[in-house]
Structures are given as structure tokens and as C-alpha cells.
């Protein structure tokens, strides 16, 4: 998901491009302004943290761009592409390393496991995702 700071700064295209160029396949995407309840459900695992309320308040400041990407190692590699949660610890060449400075404006959320990705896909895309075969598949996978 591209957070409100990434949407407001016009980074959707740049971020999409990185995942497409890597070879991942886009299965679903939408721009939306989720409800507070929706965001609290998404970040429920962080509910006990001191920063939770401020984070939810921030996530309510504008639309987010939700995406589902598929491909070998999409979760692990996708998180590497995002960079460390703290932008100051993100390597140059990562999304956070290239586009942000502070943790409270760290551009993206990425699922931390396949299991959590499946839960998040169900939350954000209850209508389901597309299933299709890319003509480039043979050029990406052996």
C-alpha cells in the first residue's frame, strides 16, 4: 500500500514501475480513502503501541493506493525493495531510501509474511483479484 504521503507526493507511478520492472505481476490496485475502522483492523497488531493513534490519524489524512503483487518471493523481495521501516536505515536504491526521510512518512506498507498478505488482500480486496498470465512470464522465469 502506498500511504497518504506517497500518494500526495505523486509517487504511485514511480513505485508501480519498480515492481513491474522487477518482474512482479500486478493482480489488483485501487485508490481509496479507508474508514478509521478499516485502518484499525489493518494495523490491529500494533494497537498496543504508543504510536498507534497517531499512525491511524495520519493514515486518515488522505487516500491510499492499495496493490496486490504476485511472483516468486514477492513478499520477501517486495519488503527489500521498500527498504527498512526507518528511512535512515534504508539503503539507497530502495523506495524508502530514495523517497523519504522520517519514519512517520515512510511512503509504503508491505506485508511481512505470506499469511499476513493473504489477510490483508482479503481486507482490502473483498471483491477478489485478477488472474492472468503475462506474455513476459517466459522472459522472467526459467
Automatic annotation (TrEMBL):
GO terms for molecular function: ATP binding; nucleoside diphosphate kinase activity. This is Nucleoside diphosphate kinase. Its cofactor is Mg(2+). It comes from the Eukaryota. The keyword Transferase applies. Belongs to the NDK family. Its EC number is 2.7.4.6. InterPro entries: NDK-like_dom, NDK-like_dom_sf, Nucleoside_diP_kinase, Nucleoside_diP_kinase_AS. Pfam families: NDK. ATP binds at residues 3, 51, 79, 85, 96, 106. It is an enzyme of class 2 (transferase). The lineage of its organism: Eukaryota, Haptista, Haptophyta, Prymnesiophyceae, Isochrysidales. It comes from Emiliania huxleyi (strain CCMP1516). One of its GO terms (biological process) is CTP biosynthetic process. It catalyses: a 2'-deoxyribonucleoside 5'-diphosphate + ATP = a 2'-deoxyribonucleoside 5'-triphosphate + ADP.
Amino acid at each position: 500500500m502506498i500511504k497518504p504521503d506517497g500518494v500526495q507526493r505523486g509517487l504511485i507511478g514511480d513505485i508501480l514501475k519498480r515492481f513491474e520492472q522487477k518482474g512482479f505481476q500486478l493482480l489488483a490496485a485501487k485508490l481509496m480513502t479507508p474508514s478509521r475502522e478499516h485502518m484499525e483492523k489493518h494495523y490491529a497488531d500494533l494497537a498496543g503501541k504508543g504510536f498507534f493513534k497517531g499512525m491511524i490519524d495520519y493514515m486518515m489524512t488522505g487516500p491510499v493506493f492499495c496493490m496486490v503483487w504476485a511472483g516468486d518471493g514477492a513478499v520477501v523481495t517486495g519488503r527489500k525493495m521498500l527498504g527498512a521501516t526507518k528511512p535512515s536505515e534504508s539503503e539507497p536504491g530502495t523506495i524508502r531510501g530514495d523517497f523519504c526521510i522520517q519514519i512517520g512518512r515512510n511512503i509504503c506498507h508491505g506485508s511481512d509474511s505470506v499469511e499476513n498478505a493473504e489477510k490483508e488482500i482479503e481486507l482490502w480486496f473483498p471483491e477478489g483479484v485478477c488472474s492472468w498470465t503475462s506474455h513476459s512470464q517466459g522472459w522472467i522465469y526459467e
